[in-house]
Amino acid sequence: MKKHVLVITNIKSDDLLPLEKARDIIHPFDASVEVIKFLHSTDQLDTSIEQLKDSLNSTVDKVFDDASEITSQVIYSDNIADWVVNRCQQTSVDLVIKTGHRSESLFHTPCDWQLIRHLPCPILIASHVKWKSKANILLTVDLSENKIMHQELNSLTLNWGKVWSQVTHTELHAMYSIPVANSLLELGIVDKYTVKQDNAAAVQQKMNSLLNQFELDSVTSHIIAGPPVRTIPHVANELHSDLVVMGTIGREGVSGFLLGNTAEKVLHHLRTDCLIIGPPQVST
Questions:
Q1: pTM of the predicted model, to two decimals?
Q2: Where does the UniProt annotation locate this protein (predicted)?
């Protein structure tokens, strides 16, 4: 079945990177692409809407060698996240690609965070760094819980990595961070190296079993101890990873406001692309 990718591009700049990454991603797949440029009601325009549409079409033609499976439109909306979520629900979008914007503050939830929490499909938050010729992908898994939701997120993460690796010939790495509270580390109450030494053998066995289940025995695994918000960016940096794939439960309400999500916190420190996968949607 043909996949459908939705790309959000920036109206205020020549932001070609999401389009170029969408082009590279869909090249091995049988996928159609929908490119959306958003306008806010307060935007002061020097050109007409028709000229903006023509400019977008011209950009699409320039980026994609074959634009026959590409559609594009300019949309007025003051709530980009709501529009995108509704669009994905109505048209069965398989992947959203968007350039990340780090504009978060205590009392403001940026568009990126809303999309992470509410999208019914994975989202690729694209950095402004191009992929290397010999790219590698870091898959993050959670081995601390046996809950069905965590198992499903591990499944989705490994499946995405497996498919991506097969079609792009990308090297895969998998990591698990043995959780250690940051406050305990700062107070010197717990030593992360001791935690790793005490738990590494059992955790490595779980990792090997999980990778074997998905026929990913050749994947290099990394076991580390510490807060994932720190360890994931650290390992990604050490490996020079081009993409980090991780699942998110997507906390809502008070818990989301106070605790946030690991994926959201990791994004503060990542300087690479991040594919974020939410739990499977339950049909009602």
A1: 0.85
A2: Cytoplasm
